[in-house]
Design brief:
heterodimer, A: alpha/beta, Oxidized Rhodanese, domain 1, 6 helices, 28% helix, B: alpha/beta
Chain lengths: 138, 98
């Protein structure tokens, strides 16, 4: 994308944060989230849940959400959740849904820090839901 | 014969793409891969670069490389932290091949 924006000297550090940490090079931390368990639920378990008692928070980008989502879910985009989390209800179980289940643990712990104590995450994310054969749509 | 020539050309194109990728260069030579020692050397040298962490802010707050700025991909086009100088070296990183 940076190349499309006209930048001519672009490099990608593919080893990323894990590679930097493995080499024990300096990292900075500005926050620490509670080391709590954010339980996983399967697509099958989600399908059988009482929809009135849960809030389905789909944290994928709006473009992906628009292409297909779990019925009843709302798009709370991960890139903005530090500002938009307050719109999440505290009186319902929050089910976090991402693409593959890779980002929901940190997101759940962030929410725990903000006082949300009833948060679970969809194992395998939306991909698992779609694979499980449950129809997608808004 | 024509089919053979087409197969040869196809093979050459695939081979070139493979060579470009294995050398850490994008197929169109628009960006390249930087390794951990190479990045550390640039940082230690005080190279004039912008190091960009593309994960969301809640990940950045938890941990990031010293000196990097957090610009999630969705904010790239609007972020004031992207340099005005298009020639400046920009290094992007995220959570790696997880």
């Amino acid at each position: 994308m940076a190349v499309e924006m006209g930048y001519k000297n672009v490099k990608v550090y593919t080893e990323g944060l894990p590679g930097w940490g493995k080499a024990r090079y300096p990292m900075v931390s500005q926050a620490s989230y509670p080391d709590v368990d954010i339980p996983l639920i399967s697509a099958k378990e989600l399908a059988s849940m009482d929809k009135g008692s849960i809030f389905l928070a789909d944290i994928r980008p709006p473009a992906d959400f628009g292409k297909g989502s779990i019925p009843g879910s709302q798009n709370i985009f991960l890139d903005d959740i530090h500002e938009s989390y307050a719109s999440l209800p505290k009186d319902k179980k929050i089910v976090l849904v991402d693409h593959k289940g890779k980002t929901t643990l940190v997101t759940g712990r962030f929410l725990a820090m903000k006082g949300y104590s009833n948060v679970v995450r969809l194992d395998g994310g939306f991909n698992a839901w779609a694979k499980a054969g449950v129809s997608a749509g808004n | 014969m024509r089919q053979f020539r087409f197969q040869c050309m196809f093979f050459v194109v695939v081979a070139l793409l493979f060579l470009a990728a294995s050398d850490g260069v994008s197929a169109d030579n628009k960006w390249s891969v930087i390794t951990t020692p190479e990045l550390k050397a640039l940082v230690d040298k005080g190279e004039d670069l912008v190091l960009v962490y593309t994960m969301p802010k809640i990940f950045n707050d938890l941990r990031h490389i010293e000196g990097s700025v957090c610009i999630p991909l969705s904010k790239l086009k609007t972020s004031p932290d992207m340099p005005a100088d298009k020639e400046k070296l920009i290094v992007f990183y995220c959570l790696g091949p997880a």
